Amino acid sequence: MKEEIQKLILEHQKQKSSSHLSIDSISLENGAEEDKVHYVYVKATNNNTFVSLYNLKGDMKIWSSTGKLGFKGSKRSTGYAAQVTGIDLADRASQRGYKSIVVFLNGFGSGRLNALKGLSSGGLTVEGLVDVTPKAHNGCRPPKIRKL
Q: Is 32 a member of any domain?
């Protein structure tokens, strides 16, 4: 099982250009059931943290965010709020029978690792960890300097 998950992660890293998972691009070998492993995306922005659980087909099953849990204003961007969000998603996922997950981290927010800590302390087994944060490669040309 762990070898299959490692192959999944390597395939996903090769296909970074497509951000959405599809059953054609990532699939388990040896005909393993798709209920064995699920994907959790953690999007950590400067103002909020979103955590969502997907199946292999890319269908969202469960989602949670710091704003949904009642954190308002600047409290949404804290690490504690992200950890509570991870625990909330893990509790609801374990009630539905999900056990093992592969986590994809996205963004530079302060709640990245705290959400991961909440997922693992909430009862889910983290089988893999992938950072899918887009990295800038010099980007667009800056505007010319204004002359007065």
A: no
Side-chain-side CA neighbours of 65 within 13 Å: the count stands at: 12
> What tens digit of pLDDT does each residue of 19-46 get?
444 433 344 444 434 457 899 999 999 9
Residue 1 lies in a domain: no
Tokens 């204004």 belong to residue? 146
Q: What pLDDT digit, counting tens, does each position of 79-132 carry?
A: 999 999 999 999 999 999 898 999 999 999 888 899 999 999 998 999 899 999
User: What whole-number distance in Å separates Cα of residue 102 and Cα of residue 9?
Assistant: 9
Q: What is the pTM of this model?
A: 0.71
Specify the DSSP class assigned to residue 48: -
Check which CATH number belongs to the domain holding 52 and give it: 3.30.420.80
Structural domain includes residue 51: yes
The domain total for the chain is: 1
Domain residue limits at 112:
42-134
Cα–Cα distance, 140 to 137 (Å, whole number): 9
In the numeric block, which tokens belong to residue 128? 């893999």
